[in-house]
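Subject line: Sequence and fold of a protein, written as structure tokens
Area: Proteins and the way their chains fold up in space.
Start of record: The labelled sequence and token lines come straight after this line.
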Amino acid sequence: MIAIVDYGAGNLNSVKKAFDYLGAEVAVTDRPETVAAADKVVLPGVGHFSSLRSLDRAGLRDTLLQAASSGTPFLGICLGMQWLFEGSEECSEVAGAGIFSGRCRQFPSSVKSPHVGWNSLAIQEGSRLLRGVAQNSFVYYTHSFHAPVVAETTAASEYGLLFAGVVERGNIFGVQFHSEKSGDVGLAILKNFCEA
């Protein structure tokens, strides 16, 4: 069973529909015990980094960190991916998970923010999450802050600068774009996660 974490800031219905379409068994939940018992965990997210405070209030933060460190396949989507980093300039008093190094920053003033729409992925060879996805495939973004390119970046996009579109380390995956709104490419990525 895949647990889709409900902390009050996720695009839950679209994410669930995408997994339902793939035939996956999913549960949308805000209960730490359900997340702890899941075979896989998805942390979606839309909006301001401060909304991640709810993970602490619901007792979910420690459960998510335990799942990630114990080898449970874990996927962060958009804000959920940003949580995997140390934090964000958007709300410096809320700590990220610190699984990946660096902080999320605002796009430069030379481009319009938020970054909304379709953008291509420069894919690194050997990505498990992007297996079978063609180089320069387009995915759907909507965000004002971006994660830095780090050693674990397996795909990047450009918008005023190069930023991390996908990160992977062992059982932990993150996508800055909305895979659930990225058509066939997004479904292929979610299918790869289901098989991780």
Q: What stands out?
A: Residues 2-194 form a domain with the Rossmann fold fold (CATH 3.40.50.880).
